[in-house]
Amino acid sequence: MPRGKLITIEGIDGAGKTTLAAGLLSALQTRGVSASRLREPGGVRAAELIRDFVKDPALRIGARAEALLYAAARAQLVEEAIEPLLAGGDWVLLDRFVDSSLAYQGAGRQLGIEAVQAINEFATASLTPDLTLLLEVDPHVGRRRLEGRGAPLERLEREEDEFFFRIASAYAALAAAAPERIAVIDGSQPPAAVLHAAVEAIQRRLMLPAGQSG
Amino acid sequence: MPRGKLITIEGIDGAGKTTLAAGLLSALQTRGVSASRLREPGGVRAAELIRDFVKDPALRIGARAEALLYAAARAQLVEEAIEPLLAGGDWVLLDRFVDSSLAYQGAGRQLGIEAVQAINEFATASLTPDLTLLLEVDPHVGRRRLEGRGAPLERLEREEDEFFFRIASAYAALAAAAPERIAVIDGSQPPAAVLHAAVEAIQRRLMLPAGQSG
């Protein structure tokens, strides 16, 4: 049994990651790929509890503690879910992974990309995605999409605009530094076009079995 | 206002840390030192919640996630309580700090002292104790004291003997590598003798105001 592939989906809030993950799961399964979809933070019991914890606006959590909590949730998700799935030959679609922490905590919270990278190498035992799909949208577009959901914005989502611009720039810099791993997709396109671009990126880079596109 | 001093108390479970911390708080206050006593993991709301979480035997938490959760709790404690106290001139007595993670996670769980040190430098923004009191007892003595409490042993405490011997060895190695910071005290002595030795170590190293001993 060949080891499965890890595909991560990244981008600012409102970029369309969840929609893409759902579409991609169907597209992979249509091609006969056994695939699982997970989200961060969460995916396993301890990580879901950490998720609730980090997102609780009533709780005082500093930037360093926040980065370490995300890393802890990630460590448990890797050990308990991702590694066993990959070892069993499954492909894993993951909504956010290390790049999110580099962008949000390293750049957004200004803790430093390298320091956050070091913590996350420890957390993941250096697991690196086979492919990362980065959905790029103008931060203002992302913000409008979030507001359109009508749901109360969570703590991170209420941060000021400048924070989101730092994150978007960090994502762009990460993609420029690792073009062999990170495929940049224009997230302002309609969902079907985003999905099509994602499937093409997967076919080009991971030798996905051919099949009906999108 | 001169910055306060950070004194950490370390040792295996059952070494007598809590008893010493209580005695030391009185001894410092008797000498006119404004001192606070904190414990790890815990001391502030988010850290207490993380403490409950890590100690819940029903929850599946791997070694890496555990080390990161302890570091997250520590980061919040440093930012929210320890740094403000020290800045205000208070002395802080802290039951466990970074050395605990080096010994328990680095050596006990075999994650590596250096990797755990790196995470903790991030967590604490490199805050280092002015003095560390290491209570040394034979691991079997520690175990018997814990059993004598009659309370159900928590998850960490139920680990096998070899784990505790690795921790005791790591503590000894840390003390040997940093004799200027770590004072080793024989924890098998009666509590009053342990307290006397601790007060002497503080007087010798931190210029504690003179006063009645113990």
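qc> DSSP finds eight helices and five strands in chain B.
qc> done
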